[in-house]
Amino acid sequence: MVVSYINITIKLALGLLSIVMVINFTGKGNLAPSSASDQVQNYVLGGIIGGVIYNENIGLLQYFIILLIWVCLVLSLRWLKTNSAFFKKAIDGEPSLLISRGKLDTEACRKAGLTAHEIMFKLRSNNIYSIRNVKQAVLEQNGQLIIVMSGEENPRYPLITDGTIQAQALDSIDKTEEWLLERLKEQGVESVSDVFLAEYENGNLNIVLY
């Protein structure tokens, strides 16, 4: 039995080290998952450790190789999401616009798997009792509903993230892409792809370049 406990301890240590390594390489996203892929990779790791740790038929070398494969897959997935907007959208999806200018998009709600009762519950949780008072309500990938009320001047989302224009954020402040491109040129920015982050606050466009 002593040998079994030693194997279990080593397997636990390897699992812990793999978690620490992934967090250090990918940031703190695994600690507070913001997308489905972040949550799934945590579940997979839990399944690997839980399924292997007490299985005497799987040796330390096999277990190490399995963890190494998992780490490589997670790092590769993170790299693709960071460097390709197409892969990020394909892997994590994108926010869903449920309410626009007081009108509820029933088709978007159906695709998101939300009933009318669930939507109203989310609104009531934010002290909102009528969709007519909502200028924009967006369902994030993690299930959180972000609400912009009628009359709000500042968007809840940045206008540009990772070199990509966020059309929904522009719509929430009644601006167009042409307006945004013109504002970028005024600040000496020729291409949207050069912008890491652009926020709009109180009439000012704050830009962070790569």
From TrEMBL:
Using the record's annotation, list all stretches that form the YetF C-terminal domain: 83-201
- Residue spans crossing the bilayer: 60-80
Q: Which residues form the YetF-like N-terminal transmembrane domain?
A: 5-80
- Asked if the keyword Cell inner membrane belongs to this entry, the reply reads no
Q: Which GO terms describe its cellular component?
A: plasma membrane
Q: Where in the cell is it found?
A: Cell membrane
A Pfam family matched in the record: DUF421
In what way does this protein cross or attach to the membrane? Answer: Multi-pass membrane protein
Q: Which keywords describe this protein according to UniProt?
A: Cell membrane, Membrane, Transmembrane, Transmembrane helix
Q: Which domain of life is it from?
A: Bacteria
Q: Which family does it belong to?
A: Belongs to the UPF0702 family.
Which protein is depicted? DUF421 domain-containing protein
Species assigned in the record: Oribacterium sinus F0268
Which lineage is the organism of this entry classified under, starting from the top rank? Bacteria, Bacillati, Bacillota, Clostridia, Lachnospirales
